[in-house]
Write a structure and sequence with these properties.
Strand content: 15-25%
Radius of gyration: 20 Å
Number of helices: 10
Number of strands: 9
CATH class of the largest domain: Alpha Beta
Strand order of the largest sheet: 4-3-2-5-6-9-7
CATH superfamily of the largest domain: Vaccinia Virus protein VP39
Structural class: alpha/beta
Mean pLDDT: 93
Order of helices and strands: EHEHEHEHEHEHHEEEHHH
Length: about 250
């Protein structure tokens, strides 16, 4: 029986064989590796992955799809909202110190999923996600560009990231109204130790008025915290590289 895509779950199913092959090649799954797929849907990516791995854990919210996936002998199905999944427990259940995470993320909640995974970065070897292209442009954004912002700084502090593949709308059924891409995210081995909430607040304040010099926003925020160090606030938020925001957050943590 044909599955009708559900709008409330943001379902767009990958249907282009060439693109699927390119994604699997980018992920490069090896036999026996512990891997978790978020939102397997109609198993377009799931099938070639499990053929190479031997076994795969999948997280699916849609009850009908979860039922269908359970009929597959090599899949362990977690029927849940991904935002409620404890990935440390998943790693434990797989007897793994590190797991690989992949998925075609629902575009309507992709950023919350990225931040949910943030807290489990210690048990993750790498992540490959298909997302809206403009979100990936922001994730990998470089300083002094329009794409560089809060998401760029927060994620680049913790991960090395790379845009690995462009995916046009016609690769899906139904086609979304946006271009897509695949990002590779590898956790940094020795990130600067800091309080993530401090970095998040600091970056939010800095980018709250992109066009203004930082002395109007971040400068006042630092004054209110009696910051005694030095930080050049005669710049705009997008002119400050990630390592400077990270160093500032570390000194405040």
């Amino acid at each position: 029986m044909k599955h009708i895509p559900r709008k409330r779950f943001g379902q767009h199913f990958l249907a282009d064989g060439g693109i699927i092959e390119a994604i699997v090649t980018a992920i490069a799954p090896q036999p026996g590796q512990p891997m978790v797929e978020i939102g397997p849907g109609l198993a377009a990516l799931t099938q070639p992955l499990v053929e190479r791995l031997g076994r795969l854990t999948v997280i699916e919210l849609d009850r009908d799809l979860a039922l269908r996936l359970r009929l597959h002998g090599q899949l362990d199905v977690i029927e849940s909202d991904v935002l409620k999944v404890d990935f440390a427990q998943v790693a434990q259940a797989l007897h793994a110190t590190k797991i690989r995470v992949v998925g075609n993320l629902p575009y309507n909640i992709s950023t919350p999923i990225l931040f949910h995974l943030f807290q489990y970065v210690d048990v993750i070897a790498d992540q490959h996600f298909m997302l809206q292209k403009e979100v990936i442009d922001r994730m990998v954004g470089a300083p002094a560009t329009g794409d560089y912002g809060r998401l760029s700084v927060m994620l680049q502090w913790r991960y090395a990231m790379e845009n690995v593949l462009f995916v046009p709308p016609e690769s899906f059924d139904p086609p979304p109204r946006v271009n897509s891409a695949v990002v590779r995210m590898v956790p940094r081995e020795a990130p600067v130790a800091l309080n993530a909430r401090v970095l998040e607040e600091l970056v939010q304040v800095a980018f709250s008025q992109r066009r203004k010099l930082l002395r109007h926003t971040l400068g006042r925020w630092l004054e209110a915290r009696a910051f005694a160090g030095t930080f050049d606030v005669q710049r705009r938020a997008e002119e400050v590289p990630v390592h400077e925001y990270v160093a500032l957050a570390a000194s405040l943590s």
